[in-house]
């Protein structure tokens, strides 16, 4: 399940990168750097989950590699579809929605568990949540 979800996520990342490069070169590089900074901890976390699920290191790396290949498919599709000027806003909206979804799925369960904790801690965790949302 995590490999399929990661593959879909990487496909959307590739779409965003491809569409950004069709907009202009600077936009493409900045989007690529932002996604690379997001992908490194994300793939490391997926690798840890795969190891915890009982896979060997070699198997976990193989599944991680296979799910990462969908980024290149997304890149090609993003370049082709990004040339259609009407499609660019929709591709970027899809990518932004994916980033927001991942941030909310990661953070909301943690925030829901703090209802019995002090208000200061709740405020601190909400602040961290807001900063993480801004990072995406």
Write a concise keyword list for the protein shown above.
single chain, mainly alpha, ZIP_Transporter, 87% helix, metal ion transmembrane transporter activity, 5 helices, 136 residues, transmembrane helix, membrane
What report would you give on this structure?
The chain is an all-alpha fold and 136 residues long. It has one domain. Helices cover 87% and strands 0% of the residues. The chain is built from five helices and no strands. The relative contact order is 0.15. The mean pLDDT is 82.
Shape call:
flat
**Amino- and carboxy-terminal Cα gap:** 23 Å
Low-confidence stretches: none
Taken in chain order, the helices and strands follow as HHHHH
- As a percent range, the share of strand residues is under 5%
Mean pLDDT over the residues: 82
Give a quick account of the main beta sheet: strands, pairing sense, barrel closure: none
Helical residue percent band: over 70%
Q: Care to count the β-strands? A: 0
> Gyration radius, to the nearest Å?
17 Å
Strand pairing plus helix content: what structural class?
Answer: mainly alpha
> How many structural domains can be distinguished in the coordinates?
1
H/I helix tally: 5
Pfam families: Zip (PF02535)
Family: Belongs to the ZIP transporter (TC 2.A.5) family.
InterPro entries: ZIP, ZIP_Transporter
Membrane topology: Multi-pass membrane protein
How would you sum up this structure in a few lines?
The chain is mainly α and 136 residues long.
Secondary structure layout plus pairing:
Layout: H1 2-23, H2 25-52, H3 57-82, H4 88-112, H5 119-135
């Amino acid at each position: 399940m995590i490999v399929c979800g990661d593959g879909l996520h990487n496909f959307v990342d590739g779409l965003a990168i491809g569409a950004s490069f069709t907009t202009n070169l600077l936009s493409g590089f900045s989007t690529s750097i932002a996604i690379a900074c997001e992908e490194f901890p994300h793939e490391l976390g997926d690798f840890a989950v795969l190891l915890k699920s009982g896979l060997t290191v070699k198997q976990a790396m193989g599944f991680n590699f296979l799910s990462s290949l969908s980024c290149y498919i997304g890149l090609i599709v993003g370049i082709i579809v990004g040339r259609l000027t009407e499609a660019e806003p929709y591709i970027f909206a899809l990518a932004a929605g994916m980033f927001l979804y991942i941030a909310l799925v990661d953070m909301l369960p943690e925030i829901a568990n703090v209802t019995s904790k002090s208000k200061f801690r709740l405020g601190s965790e909400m602040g961290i949540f807001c900063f993480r949302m801004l990072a995406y």
